[in-house]
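Re: weekly structure request thread

Next one in the queue (167 aa):
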Amino acid sequence: MLAARRASAPRRSAPSAARRPPRTTPVRAPASASGAASPASPDAPRRILVTAPNDDTGGLLEAEVLASPGSRVFSVSIKKPLGLTLAESGGRIVVESVTGGGHAASAGVAAGDALLATGARAQVGGGKDAQPVLLPTGGQRFSTVSAAIRSNTCSQCLVHLVFERGP
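Done, posted below.
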């Protein structure tokens, strides 16, 4: 299914995404109940903790995601319009295309990257104000992920996205 959300950005000269690697997010394997890292098969997905800035408090948002063995996990914080098209493929949300010179391209996002988590604004605990959250995309419907991205309504705010690039 193709993304209904296509954003474009003004064209400008920017270094090629191939020459400029994306910024990486700190990741760590969550500890097991005993506090030790749990052993896993080398072919099994890695369970990792990813972070993104919490623009409201200055702290960090965290989410646990599954990443493919041998993949590289990275995060970007970009302005709208994002300059990318997302699609659902094989039960995952992937980048179908990136607008040359757009915000996503300038941050190093490339076609084929899989979206693991997105920053969103959510009603938490029945409160009136939307709170920032980092939503893992694994197992989510495309419409849910699209709505989460759209929930970042502040025109000057950054949208925080966590991707993985294949092995």
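Residues 119 and 153 are 11 Å apart (CA to CA). The domain at 46-165 is CATH 2.30.42.10 (Pdz3 Domain).
Next request, please.
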